[in-house]
């Protein structure tokens, strides 16, 4: 596996480096970590007036890259460094394709939705510009005691099969003792279906029937995944919740000491704050967990999904 780790010398990218260093399961299956630092090009009118301007930028980049390389190598990784020039998002996406990267890991701030684009403009732009899975580390990593608990959010949509396919294809990324919590949140009956006959003349659904209908897509994809994971020696827990999705997921993550959240995303324009989907965005704002975001249109996942059909 090839991991691309763009860093800019900020505390956020330091957290991403730290996260990778601390994960032995990731280290065991990673061929190389590709460190990338992108320097902004000086306008030509200024560059011409500064002798050796590119050498100065190159040296500044290496001051950022070398400590990260040293830390990763001490943790057992093979590391390659690269300095690029221009717009960060473009260079990151181009280099990810060139490698080609299996996973992109980025550190990002943890702002709430009202403060702007949740994951930061650079991370959001990368997410919108490539279908490669993206692991976002937003807070300082602390190794939690006990087994590794992984939350997997499934709503039965087109994004859910891609998430499960990614986990199966990249199972070695997760700890050997990882327990997977398949989280599904149903909406409570809002009272519109309570009368004995609906407005359309059909029998109204009971609360149980209403919930069962919502969960049906989840069970359809969850059961085969559970069987597969049990064969591989991993425990799977079904977390059937009811209420506001973001609030319920965040509460469950805290109560069950989750250490990672895996969610699907449709990507979209980086100019739209809703690009992650409202639930994903809200969960991200309410939890400090690292988030692994999987695109439903990842070409490698689409091939696997077509074979399964």
From TrEMBL:
<protein>
    <submittedName>
        <fullName>Universal stress family protein</fullName>
    </submittedName>
</protein>
<feature type="domain" description="UspA">
    <location>
        <begin position="150"/>
        <end position="295"/>
    </location>
</feature>
<dbReference type="InterPro" id="IPR014729">
    <property type="entry name" value="Rossmann-like_a/b/a_fold"/>
</dbReference>
<dbReference type="InterPro" id="IPR006016">
    <property type="entry name" value="UspA"/>
</dbReference>
<dbReference type="InterPro" id="IPR006015">
    <property type="entry name" value="Universal_stress_UspA"/>
</dbReference>
<dbReference type="Pfam" id="PF00582">
    <property type="entry name" value="Usp"/>
</dbReference>
<comment type="similarity">
    <text>Belongs to the universal stress protein A family.</text>
</comment>
<feature type="domain" description="UspA">
    <location>
        <begin position="2"/>
        <end position="138"/>
    </location>
</feature>
């Amino acid at each position: 596996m090839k991991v691309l780790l763009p860093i800019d010398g900020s505390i956020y990218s330091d957290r991403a480096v730290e996260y990778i260093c601390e994960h032995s399961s990731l280290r065991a299956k990673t061929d190389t970590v590709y460190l990338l630092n992108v320097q902004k090009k000086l306008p030509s009118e200024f560059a011409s007036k500064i002798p050796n301007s590119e050498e100065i930028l190159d040296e500044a980049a290496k001051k950022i890259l070398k400590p990260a390389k040293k830390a990763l190598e001490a943790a057992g990784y093979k590391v390659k460094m690269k300095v690029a020039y221009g717009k960060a998002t473009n260079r990151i996406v181009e280099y990810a394709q060139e490698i080609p990267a299996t996973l992109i890991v980025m550190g990002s701030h943890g702002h709430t939705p009202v403060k702007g684009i949740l994951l930061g403009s650079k991370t959001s732009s990368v997410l919108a510009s490539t279908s490669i899975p993206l692991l976002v580390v937003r807070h300082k990593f602390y190794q939690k005691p006990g087994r590794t608990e992984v939350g997997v959010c499934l709503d039965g949509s087109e994004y859910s099969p891609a998430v499960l396919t990614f986990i199966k294809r990249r199972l070695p990324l997760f700890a050997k003792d990882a327990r997977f919590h398949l989280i599904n949140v149903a909406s409570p009956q809002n009272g519109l279906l309570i009368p004995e006959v609906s407005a359309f003349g059909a029998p109204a659904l009971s609360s149980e029937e209403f919930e069962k209908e919502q969960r049906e897509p989840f069970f359809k994809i969850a059961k085969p995944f559970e069987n597969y994971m049990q064969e591989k020696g991993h425990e799977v827990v079904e977390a059937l919740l009811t209420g506001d999705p973001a609030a319920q997921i965040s509460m469950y993550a805290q109560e069950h000491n989750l250490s990672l959240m895996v969610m699907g995303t449709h990507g979209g324009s980086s100019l739209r704050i809703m690009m992650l989907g409202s639930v994903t965005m809200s969960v991200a704002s309410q939890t400090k967990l690292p988030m692994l975001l999987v695109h439903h249109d990842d070409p490698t996942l689409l091939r696997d999904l077509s074979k399964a059909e």
